[in-house]
Design a protein that fits this description.
194 residues, alpha/beta, seven-stranded mixed sheet, two-stranded antiparallel ribbon, 6 helices, globular, disordered C terminus
């Protein structure tokens, strides 16, 4: 099994957005594809790594497979992000660590993801997350030590709950550009910021 698994969570229902936001085009391509392309760049630079995509959407499934990702379908995405997280984690259960990225963060860069992985490896800690101006964001990394706690999450609760529970075991990677951490939940978040 791979040492490093990059998991993209792409199964959300986009209730606040009004349509499937992951297929919404930004700069000429679907939102999720921006994230998937960055993960693919990261995979090429990290030995013994792979990509897992958890989704409910056929288009995302087909595209992710073309990029060489293993795809798992979440049959019950209405159960919240924890349901997708657990599916991805189960598929990657023997990996030394997993990086979780969300598909609605189209401005995240491979450089930031690689910096996060580097921070994690050098820190000796069990978790790592990106941060900007005191705000914790995605992606996040979890070592095997935290897999049981991740599996115990329910509803729309993600890994940040565990990060907040064990702050002494988290390495933070400051990102220079705040837009990288912006996730798109409503259409208004796509408008230029004043």
């Amino acid at each position: 099994m791979m040492k490093t698994v990059l998991i993209m969570l792409a199964a959300g229902n986009s209730r606040r957005f009004g349509s499937n936001k992951l297929l919404y085009e930004i700069e000429g391509k679907p939102m999720y594809l921006h994230v998937l392309e960055q993960l693919k760049q990261v995979q090429k630079k990290i030995p013994d790594s792979g990509i897992i995509v958890v989704t409910q959407y056929q288009e995302i499934k087909e595209t992710a497979q073309k990029y060489g990702a293993k795809v798992y379908v979440n049959p019950e995405p209405e159960r919240g992000i924890s349901s997708s997280l657990k599916i991805g984690l189960e598929a990657a259960r023997s990996a030394e660590y997993c990086l979780f990225a969300v598909a609605d963060q189209p401005w995240i860069t491979a450089g930031t993801i690689l910096a996060l992985i580097d921070t994690y490896k050098k820190s000796g800690r069990g978790m790592a997350a990106v941060k900007r101006d005191g705000m914790i964001g995605n992606p996040c990394i979890f070592s095997q030590k935290y897999y049981p706690e991740l599996k115990a999450l329910t509803g729309d609760t993600g890994g940040k709950k565990i990060i907040k529970k064990h702050p002494e075991d988290v390495a933070f990677c400051e990102t220079e550009n705040a837009i990288e951490l912006q996730d798109v939940d409503i259409r208004e978040s796509l408008l230029p910021q004043a």
